Amino acid sequence: MAVNQYENIIQELELTLKELENSQSENPIVGQCIQEEKKDVQQALHKVKTKSFGYCELSGEEIPFEFIKINPTIQNMDQVNEWLRYGKKQWTTNY
Which listed residue, of 3, 8, 41, 78, carries a Cα 20 to 30 Å from 14's Cα? Predict the structure, then answer.
Protein backbone atom coordinates (compact mmCIF):
# COMPACT_ATOMS: atom_id res chain seq x y z
CA MET A 1 0.00 0.00 0.00
CA ALA A 2 1.40 3.36 -1.02
CA VAL A 3 0.58 5.75 1.82
CA ASN A 4 0.44 8.79 -0.48
CA GLN A 5 -2.21 7.10 -2.60
CA TYR A 6 -4.44 6.63 0.45
CA GLU A 7 -3.68 9.87 2.31
CA ASN A 8 -6.92 11.67 1.37
CA ILE A 9 -8.99 8.59 2.05
CA ILE A 10 -7.44 8.18 5.50
CA GLN A 11 -8.13 11.84 6.30
CA GLU A 12 -11.73 11.37 5.18
CA LEU A 13 -12.06 8.28 7.39
CA GLU A 14 -10.77 10.26 10.38
CA LEU A 15 -13.25 13.07 9.70
CA THR A 16 -16.08 10.58 9.22
CA LEU A 17 -15.28 8.94 12.55
CA LYS A 18 -15.47 12.30 14.34
CA GLU A 19 -18.82 13.03 12.68
CA LEU A 20 -20.18 9.60 13.61
CA GLU A 21 -19.02 10.00 17.20
CA ASN A 22 -20.99 13.27 17.37
CA SER A 23 -24.08 11.78 15.70
CA GLN A 24 -27.12 10.99 17.76
CA SER A 25 -30.53 9.65 16.91
CA GLU A 26 -33.56 8.76 18.96
CA ASN A 27 -34.56 6.30 16.24
CA PRO A 28 -33.08 2.91 17.24
CA ILE A 29 -32.65 1.79 13.63
CA VAL A 30 -30.72 4.93 12.70
CA GLY A 31 -28.70 4.64 15.91
CA GLN A 32 -27.78 1.06 15.03
CA CYS A 33 -26.69 2.10 11.53
CA ILE A 34 -24.52 4.86 13.01
CA GLN A 35 -22.87 2.37 15.40
CA GLU A 36 -22.24 -0.16 12.61
CA GLU A 37 -20.72 2.49 10.35
CA LYS A 38 -18.61 3.78 13.23
CA LYS A 39 -17.31 0.24 13.83
CA ASP A 40 -16.43 -0.15 10.13
CA VAL A 41 -14.55 3.16 10.10
CA GLN A 42 -12.69 2.30 13.30
CA GLN A 43 -11.72 -1.04 11.81
CA ALA A 44 -10.44 0.63 8.63
CA LEU A 45 -8.36 3.10 10.67
CA HIS A 46 -6.96 0.22 12.72
CA LYS A 47 -5.95 -1.46 9.47
CA VAL A 48 -4.10 1.74 8.51
CA LYS A 49 -2.11 1.52 11.76
CA THR A 50 -1.31 -2.15 11.21
CA LYS A 51 -0.42 -1.50 7.55
CA SER A 52 -3.12 -3.88 6.31
CA PHE A 53 -5.43 -1.19 4.89
CA GLY A 54 -6.31 -1.86 1.27
CA TYR A 55 -5.77 -5.60 1.49
CA CYS A 56 -8.34 -8.39 1.45
CA GLU A 57 -8.89 -9.81 4.94
CA LEU A 58 -9.45 -13.27 3.45
CA SER A 59 -6.75 -13.66 0.81
CA GLY A 60 -4.28 -10.88 1.60
CA GLU A 61 -4.36 -9.60 -1.98
CA GLU A 62 -4.48 -5.88 -2.60
CA ILE A 63 -7.97 -4.50 -3.19
CA PRO A 64 -8.06 -2.37 -6.37
CA PHE A 65 -7.74 1.31 -5.46
CA GLU A 66 -10.89 2.17 -7.44
CA PHE A 67 -12.91 0.17 -4.93
CA ILE A 68 -11.15 1.69 -1.93
CA LYS A 69 -12.18 5.09 -3.33
CA ILE A 70 -15.79 3.92 -3.64
CA ASN A 71 -15.92 2.32 -0.19
CA PRO A 72 -12.93 2.94 2.10
CA THR A 73 -14.26 0.45 4.66
CA ILE A 74 -14.35 -2.42 2.17
CA GLN A 75 -12.85 -5.50 3.79
CA ASN A 76 -12.44 -8.21 1.19
CA MET A 77 -12.70 -9.23 -2.43
CA ASP A 78 -16.15 -10.74 -1.83
CA GLN A 79 -17.39 -7.21 -1.16
CA VAL A 80 -15.65 -6.03 -4.34
CA ASN A 81 -17.52 -8.72 -6.25
CA GLU A 82 -20.80 -7.52 -4.70
CA TRP A 83 -20.04 -4.01 -6.00
CA LEU A 84 -19.36 -5.50 -9.41
CA ARG A 85 -22.55 -7.53 -9.41
CA TYR A 86 -24.93 -4.89 -8.05
CA GLY A 87 -23.19 -1.84 -9.47
CA LYS A 88 -22.94 -3.42 -12.92
CA LYS A 89 -19.39 -2.06 -13.17
CA GLN A 90 -17.19 -3.79 -15.68
CA TRP A 91 -13.81 -4.81 -14.31
CA THR A 92 -11.08 -6.59 -16.18
CA THR A 93 -8.80 -7.67 -13.34
CA ASN A 94 -8.91 -11.36 -12.44
CA TYR A 95 -9.68 -12.07 -8.80
Answer: 78
pLDDT at residue 93 tops 80: no
- Cα dist from 85 to 15, 25, 58, 81, whole Å: 30, 32, 19, 6
pLDDT digits (tens, 9 = 90+) for 8-40: 999 999 999 999 999 988 999 999 999 999 999
Q: How many C-alpha atoms does 41 have within 13 Å on its Cβ side?
A: 19
What are the DSSP calls for the chain, one per residue? --HHHHHHHHHHHHHHHHHHHT---SSHHHHHHHHHHHHHHHHHHHHHHTT-TTB-TTT-PBPPHHHHHH-TT--SHHHHHHHHHHH-----S--
